[in-house]
Amino acid sequence: MIPASYVGRFAPSPTGPLHFGSLVAALASWLDARALGGHWLVRMEDLDRLRCSQAAADIILRQLEAYGLTWDRAVLVQSRRDEAYAAALDALRAQGAVFACTCTRSQLADAPRNAEGELVYPGTCRLHAVPRGEHHAWRVRVQDVSVDFVDRIRGVLQQDLAREVGDFVVRRADGLFAYQLAVVVDDAFQGVTHVVRGADLLWNTPRQIYLQRLLGLPTPIYAHVPLVTNAAGQKLSKQTLAPALPETGRRAVLAEALAALGHPPPAELVGTAPADLLGWASAHWRIENVPLHPTIAKPLA
Ligand SMILES: [Zn+2]
Known about the structure:
The protein has helices at residues 20-35, 54-66, 82-94, 161-164, 179-189, 205-215, 250-260, 274-284; strands at 7-10, 39-44, 76-77, 98-101, 137-140, 146-151, 155-160, 168-171, 194-198, 221-225, 227-229, 295-297. The protein has 301 residues and is an alpha/beta fold. Zinc ion is lined by residues 101-103, 124-125.
């Protein structure tokens, strides 16, 4: 079913230029929005001021333009949205859904880990009073519920939040709002109806749905596209030294990104301008043709 109004988004962290893996995620989101007649927005997730920069944000926007991935409306910048996140935190506090946590990293070093290697909070501070003047994080009190959702690529998924994640941080002790809270507030603020993003964020989704329910916000429809890996099987990222998207040969790169998403363009179109490739791809886009496997090997040398 095609929704009356579709709003999709691409939300990179401006820590460096886009690489092939981020192009694949952006392309999937853009194509899905365009194929379904929707709007496509860009949001800069620059909460981590130390790792993010305006220069990187500018480069990312230039790269999107160069690859023909045009966006609608002004780019939303998370580092200017503290008031909105603070209001959401206040709403959570008002319903007793969060508690102050003074645990340090070393105090949590022995906490259990989930399958993703993330710490499962052991509940240490759940019953503490709010400390006065002391640095503390805010954590969401996770009730013993399981969160189910339907991923358009992966089908029905379910996570036992209390057991697999535990109470999670929405505002860090250093005052920065956590990714989970900012994403939920911004998706609602931007009217996002469809989230198409990389599978590295798959198991963040139940936390985000949990927050949406606490805050009375709508839950978008999710789809998680496979991650592109390097020859060593690692996700392409700045940490794994993925090269920036090339400034030349964009047509071939775009054709390879389409192939990675299960939409290889016909031979006669390879080598045509990005706009022609994208026109063909949005006409032929079927999200069910995106491969299910969590990783795909990067086809470029
Ligand atoms: Zn604690």
